From TrEMBL:
Catalytic activity, as annotated: Thiol-dependent hydrolysis of ester, thioester, amide, peptide and isopeptide bonds formed by the C-terminal Gly of ubiquitin (a 76-residue protein attached to proteins as an intracellular targeting signal)
Keywords per UniProt: Cytoplasm, Hydrolase, Metal-binding, Protease, Thiol protease, Ubl conjugation pathway, Zinc, Zinc-finger
Compartments, as annotated in UniProt: Cytoplasm
InterPro entries: OTU1_Ubl, OTU_dom, Papain-like_cys_pep_sf, Ubiquitin-like_domsf, Znf-C2H2_OTU1-like_C
Enzyme class: hydrolase
Protein name: Ubiquitin thioesterase OTU
Main location: cytoplasm
Matching Pfam families: OTU, OTU1_UBXL, zf-C2H2_OTU1_C
Gene this protein is translated from: LOC108558439
Entry's EC annotation: 3.4.19.12
Function: Hydrolase that can remove conjugated ubiquitin from proteins and may therefore play an important regulatory role at the level of protein turnover by preventing degradation.
OTU domain mapped to chain residues: 115-241
Length: 314
């Protein structure tokens, strides 16, 4: 009898469920999911897969081990519209062992847990908070980490005008160094690259807009890797929740292809579920003059016409 660990996503958030086994029935699963989501069983849609599709849970006496649901799967819970006539899709075929495809051959892998995100505050320093979390396994509660990282980045940039030229930075070197130390400014690729080099660790950013992973420090042969989730404007750290209990893990060997494939699946899942921010529609506020702006283009135009470069999320 195998203990099941399922990641359940719903409107109220997400959590790991570890109270079912391979011998649990579909009815037991539906009862549990209905209780977690406060959605009546007759109006509960359960989706899974990439892209997500509705599971056939009508055979309530069947065991999970024969249902096409596997330990480690992600289940997305939705409520059926009252007027909607339910349509039963074909049942999911049992999924074979996941595979890693290489240039030479095909190797199987079994992920030891579920990759989860830890939500950090959207305070314009989410990148620095997230990097501290994956390096230390906790959120900085002193408020000192982000300013320290900003100063470190400014000092690094100021010492190398050739590498960090105006063409690279988008502004004169000195202006950038002043700008990045303002706690209202956001970090991005330049800052991630510098912090990757400073800590000697690869930083893999899971981009949910494009369903890709951007790797910083990939060419440095670092021995370890951490993961961040980026939705277009906000960064959150990722961690591994072990299926069999134990402590979460945030730092992984770079040769660990199992976790990397898990992160790739997470990127695809997040994009298919539209878990990203359309940078052309989100609202910003200019910190300098309090003008509200819609989207990245307006912010860029405002900065060009006024010289104001500090924006906050609304």
């Amino acid at each position: 009898m195998t203990t099941y660990a399922l990641k359940v996503k719903m409107k109220t958030g997400q959590q790991i469920v570890k109270t079912l086994t391979s011998e649990s029935t579909i009815k037991e699963l539906k009862t549990l999911l209905s209780k977690l989501s406060n959605i009546p069983q007759d109006r509960l849609n359960v989706l899974s897969g990439f892209p997500p599709r509705i599971l056939d849970l009508n055979h309530e006496s069947n065991h999970l081990c024969s249902s096409g649901i596997f330990s480690g799967d992600t289940l997305i819970l939705e409520e059926k519209a009252v007027a909607t006539v339910p349509v039963t899709p074909p049942p999911l075929k049992p999924r074979p062992t996941a595979t890693i495809v290489s240039n030479e051959d095909t190797a199987s892998y079994d992920c030891p847990g579920i990759l989860m995100k830890h939500v950090v505050p959207a305070d314009n320093s989410c990148l620095f908070t997230s990097i501290h979390f994956v390096l230390n396994g906790k959120v900085d509660d002193t408020g000192s980490v982000a300013p320290w990282m900003r100063t470190l980045i400014a000092e690094t940039v100021s010492k190398d005008h050739e590498k960090y030229s105006e063409a690279i930075l988008g502004k004169p070197n000195a202006d950038y160094c002043k700008w990045i130390q303002d706690d209202n400014t956001w970090g991005g690729a330049i800052e991630i690259s510098i912090l990757s080099s400073y800590y000697g660790i690869e930083i893999a950013v899971v981009d949910t807009i494009n369903a890709i992973i951007n790797r910083f420090g990939e060419d440095q042969d670092y021995g370890t890797r951490v993961f961040l989730l980026f939705d277009g404007i906000h960064y959150d750290p990722l961690y591994l929740e072990p299926i069999d209990g134990g402590n979460m893990q945030t730092i992984f060997p770079t040769e660990d292809e199992t976790i990397f494939r898990e992160a790739e699946q997470l990127a695809v899942e997040a994009k298919s579920s539209r878990q990203y921010t359309d940078v052309n529609k989100f609202t910003l506020k200019c910190i300098v003059c309090d003008m509200k702006l819609s989207g990245q283009v307006q912010a860029q135009q405002h900065a060009k016409s006024t010289g104001h470069t500090s924006f906050g999320e609304i």
